[in-house]
């Protein structure tokens, strides 16, 4: 049971940007910091842009920054935006309705309630809340980010 | 985001057995009812036996039944027993501690809280509770189960 690396990386990008609020960050810099695939990160950042979390300024002096202050970004909203589905079991997928316990399955209702409880905890927290617990990270300065490569 | 088919099938087996309390069921019968792999179901039932949910009587007249009454089987216990891990993101795996936001990452704590909220909903429900919402299922009679093959 896990969230996708796509969502995981999206959350890390947002944390990174929130911790470097006074400058533009770059994809290579973030990929190097977390030691994750640049190609994957390009897709993650593209989606974060489409969903209104990250803005990209192109050209020299450009880069990535948050589109909203961390207090305005709910973690639940990010997870809902990045995960492709919340089909806790097969029958949550409208295309997979073959289980013979349907349509009156108490298990499906229970799993839906559990999934909602999971997302409600994430909905109640903002990116700013997450930063409070993330205090000891040494982020690279813009000037020294080449050293990480 | 989903639970494994292994756990999904385990829960379906338990529901099936709880709805046929007065007789022994068989793996082919359950596999046919749900139209799922017999081989996979063998592994699921084996694990359900090891974990104390299902008992198997071998030989003629034998079969599968619940080891405990449905009121004594918590859905959370089943899910915890059948899922291989609850590594919501990479860093929950003790062998994957490479994220540079560790050890003081607020996101990890938040995801752990959300995961606990998910499991707590499942812990609060028993197999008997699930059955209350599962009323309209037409189960095969033992005598006619061959017709389903």
Overview of this protein structure:
2 copies of one chain form a homodimer. By secondary structure, chain A is mainly alpha-helical. Chain A has a domain at 5-85 and 126-148: Arc Repressor Mutant, subunit A (Orthogonal Bundle), CATH 1.10.10.10. Helix content of chain A is 46%, strand content 5%. Chain A contains 6 helices and 2 strands. Chain A has helices at 5-19, 27-34, 38-50, 75-82, 106-123, 127-132; strands spanning 54-57, 63-66. In chain A, helix 1 (5-19) crosses helix 4, helix 2 (27-34) crosses helix 3 (38-50) and helix 4 (75-82) packs across helix 5 (106-123). Chain A is elongated and about 60 Å long. The first copy, chain A, starts with a helix and ends in a 17-residue tail after the last helix. Residues 143-149 of chain A have low confidence and may be disordered. Chains A and B meet through helix 1, helix 5 and helix 6 of A and helix 1, helix 5 and helix 6 of B.
